[in-house]
């Protein structure tokens, strides 16, 4: 009798450490480290091609927009177009898998995957309407990156890195809320 070997999945990254390093690099906020993580994702994409997870691809596109924004090399209109393309692709790609033979409204699909409806509305404006303000595109990017971190990256990590960050954010929110209460008391 032959023993069955566990199935192995071939991936583009070298191992868990590289995956974790890229995730931390993408979300760290340091544009130099983010660029290094983006370069690594590009290498993964060249190895993995169309098998690249959509969430990784979308995260990289959105982080690339933030890096370009912080560089100061692009004009406001160019940044709106850059953020806009990344946001439109995110909404389209993430909801596409839920689309059935019958067309389902994007708002309903977004609700099912817990994407804020205003992000879908922003996508609609970018696609069919007048271009929104840069500030709204930046906010959309931040919200979507946070959604990707919570919905995809933290589940892939399987460690406490993201949970620790959320605990720190909750502590900070509590401190800010207490500060607001103290300010109200002084008034």
From TrEMBL:
One of its GO terms (cellular component) is preribosome, large subunit precursor. Signal peptide: none annotated. Pfam families: Las1 (PF04031). GO terms for biological process: maturation of 5.8S rRNA; maturation of LSU-rRNA. It comes from the Eukaryota. Residues 164-187 are annotated as: Disordered. Residues 165-187 have a biased composition (Acidic residues). One of its GO terms (molecular function) is endonuclease activity. This is LAS1L protein. It comes from Galbula dea.
């Amino acid at each position: 009798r032959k023993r069955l070997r566990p199935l192995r999945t071939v991936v583009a990254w070298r191992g868990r450490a590289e995956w974790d390093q890229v995730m931390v690099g993408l979300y760290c906020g340091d544009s130099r480290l983010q660029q290094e993580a983006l370069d690594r994702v590009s290498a993964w994409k060249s190895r993995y091609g169309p098998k690249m997870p959509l969430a990784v691809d979308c995260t990289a596109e959105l982080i690339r927009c933030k890096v370009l924004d912080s560089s100061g090399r692009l004009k406001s209109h160019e940044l709106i177009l850059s953020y806009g393309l990344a946001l439109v692709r995110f909404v389209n790609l993430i909801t596409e898998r839920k689309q059935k033979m019958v067309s389902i409204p994007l708002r309903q699909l977004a609700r099912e995957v817990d994407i804020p409806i205003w992000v879908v509305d922003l996508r609609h404006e970018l696609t069919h309407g007048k271009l929104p303000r840069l500030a709204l595109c930046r906010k959309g990017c931040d919200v979507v990156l946070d959604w990707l971190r919570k919905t995809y990256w933290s589940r892939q990590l399987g460690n406490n890195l993201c949970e620790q960050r959320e605990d720190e954010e909750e502590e900070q929110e509590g401190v800010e809320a207490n500060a607001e209460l103290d300010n109200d008391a002084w008034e």
